[in-house]
Amino acid sequence: MVASSKKHSREQRDARERLRHYSARNTVHENSLARRKRDNLLSVGVGLVVIALVATAQVFYFSAGPGTPEPTPSFTPDPSASAPVQENIGDVPDASVSEGRIWTGELTLNDVALGIELDGAAAPQAVASIVDSISSDYYAGTTCHRLVKTDNAGLIQCGSLDGTGASDPDYAYGPVENAGVGGFYPAGTIAMARTGNNAFSNGRQFFIVFDDAIIPDDAAGGYSIVGSVVSGLDALQSEIIAGGIVDDAEDGAPVIATSITGFTIQ
Question: Mean pLDDT across the stretch 60-88?
Fold first, then answer.
């Protein structure tokens, strides 16, 4: 009986020891799971903070920092910025003057005669302005003060009254009509110049595209296409454009001083 009692006691001790070891391992396991859960939550939190910081840095870089995109120059009669005005200024003729039809005529730059067509249906307000300005002899003697020759554009801008390209503060109209699709203005295009980001800053100045041009839209859109040159573009290239730009620039005054010596329409 004594031996049996001792054996039973030893078995009880062994059972208690196994239970203690099991409880200890289980506690360690549970603590490990809890610690792993805390670590995972901490990792997720740190990751979200890092993503937020990276996103903030990118926004700053591209909106206010060194990654800010360079502004694209506008083909505008006035290099100074102006606040958009959403109404016509001055004695702007009614759009009905364009009669919604095709006008044909001749524009002469120095001794180069260009046959032109103006589309009163596509750009009624702009064509009305040109027709009215021709009838009042506004264009006679005005200059072509600006020549642009880049990989993306070739154009000459005309109609500057004082020769500087400054806009007339007493005459402006809008909106933009018949702009180039996707910023594309094919060779031969005649379009109105305006101040950047202002759809109601069209005046009397216009530009003639002699090489296909890509002119990106700005906040106001594109540039009003009023018509096209149907003859004489080659002569314009050889007799005026070929002379180049002052100081060998890509954008500036033409070396061959150019003015409008004739403008007729019918």
Answer: 49
99 falls within a domain: yes
* Block residue for tokens 């596509």: 122
Q: Residue type at 212?
A: D
Q: Is residue 44 domain-shared with residue 173, that is, in the same domain?
A: no
Please tell me whether residues 142 and 12 are part of one structural domain.
no
Q: Which residue has the higher pLDDT, 11 or 223?
A: 223
Specify the number of domains making up the chain. 2
- 75 belongs to a structural domain: no
Q: What is the mean pLDDT of the chain?
A: 81
Q: Report CA dihedral (236, 237, 242, 248) to the nearest 10 degrees.
A: 100
CATH classification of the domain holding 163: 2.40.100.10
DSSP class of residue 84?
-
CA-closest candidate to residue 81, choices 167, 153, 140? 167
**Hey, how many other C-beta atoms are within 10 angstroms of the C-beta on 81?**
11
Distance of CA 173 to CAs 95, 119, 213, 224, 258, Å?
Answer: 11, 18, 24, 11, 26
Q: Which residues contact 64 (CB under 8 A, 6 or more apart)?
A: none
In the predicted structure, residue 216 carries a pLDDT above the cut 70 = yes
